[in-house]
């Protein structure tokens, strides 16, 4: 290149300087509006709440206690915080159910797309990608219009005389589940399709030649081969489900809280910023564990074909 | 003749796929259709009309929120794309360098950390700055959006850069073109589809953001999505459908254009 006249060491140093100069603006913005605030949140979780929101700069471990415990206001005894635990449990339960639901709908869909002629596949995938890039609020709202008491489903059912009174679907755990499956389904189909597209069907053929049934081929040949896609899709769906805020807020109507809504509550009516910070860090920790499990599984489960 | 045995067929899969596509698009179609409803209901059809588009257009809050959304999305995508180009130039086609994984972790942080956690962290940090400086303008939202748009702009640009042929740049350098000249005359003309794709992605991501905006905005700084979120608490009229349809149109156009751009040959 141009600076061959310089000793190798100096060239390297120069390249490193240029590299960091080019990276500096992006890293500064990220430090200012992503990584830095996260560290401050960690600090806030160990302070005392102020009376009108904010904090008093006095170290306190109360927020971390209050994540899962509560202190009785009369006799100071500690007990499990049922309210928080039930919200954690609902979040984990609904996120797992969302993941399973997305597999049930997403697996056959991805398989269907992957077995289309090559030219058609991109078009089918575009149909999956378009909802993915449209506003989550709009998609949630579209489902709300369908299932609310005055919504399409109830109107049609009542008009046709099947029911007399609208079925209450909105503002239940069921509606949150439906909303989250609807919103996160593309995240399942994308990685599933990526692994199915590379599926070697000669192995499937070999299975049939050896008199395997369709069920057996699916379970013993296809599933093991696309397992990395299933794992990736599950993580991609589970992680945002766990931190979901918009869908449970719109679908749950304030009765069915998930962790995201519990966090928001601490910055609104709760006026307990340290607790909100501690809950945020807890959520982040759970997500990081899930991602680490994924990296581990993905590392050891490299597809054995192709 | 016996029917040929199709090894790719799985019983029931086609049906589930068909159901999935119908379920995926039916709510969106209904949303769009009822935005043209002449009545005030979002479930009972009373004839075609543009009235909700007119009423949204005349609604001052919607006008202000739209302008605000566009200003934020414009600056956030412009700045994040510029920063992403620089970062992509620094991190592609170089041997593994010290601190590389930390750099990638930082760039990808907005993709890994749950949005609600980032939102809360920004609320805390910006509240401190607001108290210290007294400034409560749009800059907070622009910086917040810029940060989470960086990975979305970075990925397509980096992909394009990785796929590019090094020979032309080397030839230019061999002919004593200074590095900056090589960049503007050789690299940039080849890179522009990636840059445009990254900028569009960032624009859509910024335009659609609800959670972070909801926590960072000061009073009276609603963007279109947060305005809609507020409206959902009240009795919903097809006006929300009309706004949604317009936003939907923008997103779909951008995604189709993005897909076409990413397919352009290097």
TrEMBL record, chain A:
Domain ABC transmembrane type-1: from-to ranges: 88-294
Topology in membrane: Multi-pass membrane protein
InterPro entries: MetI-like (IPR000515), MetI-like_sf (IPR035906)
Subcellular location: Cell membrane
Organism: Pseudosulfitobacter koreensis
Keywords, in A-Z order: Cell membrane, Membrane, Transmembrane, Transmembrane helix, Transport
Keyword NAD tagged: no
Name by which UniProt lists this protein: ABC transporter permease
UniProt cross-references to PANTHER family, sorted A to Z: INNER MEMBRANE ABC TRANSPORTER PERMEASE PROTEIN YDCU-RELATED, INNER MEMBRANE ABC TRANSPORTER PERMEASE PROTEIN YDCU-RELATED-RELATED
Family: Belongs to the binding-protein-dependent transport system permease family. CysTW subfamily.
Pfam families (UniProt xref): BPD_transp_1
TM segment ranges: 20-47, 94-114, 126-147, 167-193, 221-246, 275-295
Primary location recorded for the protein, binned into one broad class: membrane
Source lineage: Bacteria, Pseudomonadati, Pseudomonadota, Alphaproteobacteria, Rhodobacterales
TrEMBL record, chain B:
Topology of this chain in the membrane: Multi-pass membrane protein
Keyword Cell membrane: yes
Subcellular location: Cell inner membrane; Cell membrane
UniProt keyword annotations, A-Z: Cell inner membrane, Cell membrane, Membrane, Transmembrane, Transmembrane helix, Transport
Ranges that cross the membrane: 21-45, 65-90, 111-132, 138-157, 191-207, 242-261
Domain ABC transmembrane type-1: from-to ranges: 66-258
Pfam families found in the cross-reference section: BPD_transp_1
InterPro entries cross-referenced by the UniProt entry: Bact_Polyamine_Transport, MetI-like, MetI-like_sf
PROSITE patterns: ABC_TM1
Family: Belongs to the binding-protein-dependent transport system permease family. CysTW subfamily.
Biological role stated in the UniProt entry: Required for the activity of the bacterial periplasmic transport system of putrescine and spermidine.
Name of this protein: Spermidine/putrescine transport system permease protein PotC
Species of the source: Pseudosulfitobacter koreensis
